[in-house]
Amino acid sequence: SARIAVLISGTGRNLQALIEACADGRIDGHIVCVLSNRADAAGLERAQQVGIATEVLSHRDYESREAFDTAMIARLLSHTPDIVVMAGFMRILTPAFIAAFAGRMLNIHPSLLPRHPGLRTHEAVLAAGERKHGATVHFVTEELDGGPLIIQDELIVRADDDVMTLAQRVMSGIELKIYPQAVAWMARGELELAGRQVRFKGQILAGPLGR
Ligand code: GAR
Questions:
Q1: Is 113 annotated as a binding residue?
Q2: In terms of Cα–Cα distance, which of 4, 14, 9 is closest to 175?
Q3: pTM for this model (two decimals)
Q4: Would 187 disulfide with which of 2, 37, 106, 196, CB 3.0-4.6 Å?
Q5: Backbone phi, psi, residue 176, to 5°
Q6: How does 23-38 read in b/e, with b if 16+ C-beta sit within 10 Å?
Q7: DSSP character for 86?
Q8: Does ligand 1 lie within 6 Å of residue 13's CB atom?
Q9: Which one, of 109, 120, 188, lies nearest residue 147 by Cα?
Q10: Complex ipTM, two decimals?
């Protein structure tokens, strides 16, 4: 059973979906720790409720990004994770952190990457008048929101959508489904990062998988 560390900064709905998928066997793994850079992240309570170890490390207590990441690496390594899952973790990572977990670190992003990296993706989709929106799970590399894509799913933007309705539909209809799926593949050893390419069950992916 794979040892999974989850990094959060907030509500933890993706974390909750991962907790449930581990509990019901969809993911052959268990969450060994949940680390938050914010003490008030609601996701911490979700972890504590089911007896998962939590770690809080405030970036404000460190004088540089490097010092913060060095401390995070040490905390995470003490739980010997096989997989590091970013679930709404809102800090930019240093190259040293990414190197420490290279090929073992996933992120979910609320857009159809490579479209709309960064923050406020729902606003960006509406402002651009785009017809399609969605979410993407990708390997984390040094490029911000730019690592190789694993799985992506989309929805059609409605004329009456606003930021709230889009965020809600992307979360419940897409994120909470594709992240447990990607982590399940990862836990079974079915996903591999080979340079800039993703191998799924040994085959190089030409593009992200669908759901
Ligand atoms: C999710 O929508 C996730 O995709 C996004 O933050 C939200 C976290 O919600 N992540 C990013 O924007 C990463 N830059 P959650 O804490 O309820 O899972």
A1: no
A2: 14
A3: 0.98
A4: 2
A5: -70, -10
A6: eeebbebebbbbbbbb
A7: E
A8: yes
A9: 109
A10: 0.99
